[in-house]
Amino acid sequence: GAVVSQHPSRVICKSGTSVKIECRSLDFQATTMFWYRQFPKKSLMLMATSNEGSKATYEQGVEKDKFLINHASLTLSTLTVTSAHPEDSSFYICSARYMTDMNTEAFFGQGTRLTVV
Amino acid sequence: SQQGEEDPQALSIQEGENATMNCSYKTSINNLQWYRQNSGRGLVHLILIRSNEREKHSGRLRVTLDTSKKSSSLLITASRAADTASYFCATVPYNFNKFYFGSGTKLNVKP
User: Taking the CB of the first residue and of the last residue of chain B, which one, N or C, has fewer CB atoms within 10 A?
Assistant: First the structure.
């Protein structure tokens, strides 16, 4: 299957700082990228959907100013957690999709473990 | 979860036995997909079933879909220790380019 690279895999940051997570589709052009948050032993919560060149669509309850998403090209999307707090500590996963129609799968990055101290 | 629930939450079986996981969802869908996640890792796509399909097979995997009940099941036959992982169903709502995940089933296959 296609490869999605997510970086970094782990990051520890201090409260109040910002952290950027990158998601790259290595061998295909991702028309859509998704960002998820996963709490321990829980499901994946969709945070936002981004299409290349347009603003991200955020799910209800997700703060746009807190979680900045940029999808500047067909192979790169970034998630920036701004002014991080300990409660932002979580596992963040991106996925990418090349959508020819609705019946296509998504390819996932390996996730980023964020710890805010 | 955002879209639905899975049961059981956890399942422990012996190698060679079959494992069945169920997924229920809330809205009309375009398709339903099953993914696998090893601990602390990303997800791997297993199988996709379209809303107009009722059953699909892929190797040791068998998926059913009942749109009237808004439910799906994943059967893994002749399980192996390597099948130990969490399994999630994901729904693609009708006319929406999104994936919503169920609550997941943690499968443990004992050697």
Answer: C
Please enumerate in sequence order all residues whose Cβ is within 8 A of that of B35, keeping only pairs 6 or more positions apart, or say none. Answer: A108, B43, B44, B45, B46, B87, B88, B89, B90, B101
Interfacial A residues in 25-44 facing B (CB < 8 Å)? 32, 34, 36, 41-44
A–B CB contacts, 8 A cutoff, strictly below: 70
The residues pairing with B86 across neighbouring beta strands, listed in sequence order, are B37, B106
pLDDT digits (tens, 9 = 90+) for B65-99: 999 999 999 999 999 999 999 999 999 888 777 88
Name the minimum distance, in Å, from the CA of B74 to any CA of chain A. Answer: 17
End-to-end CA gap in chain A: 36
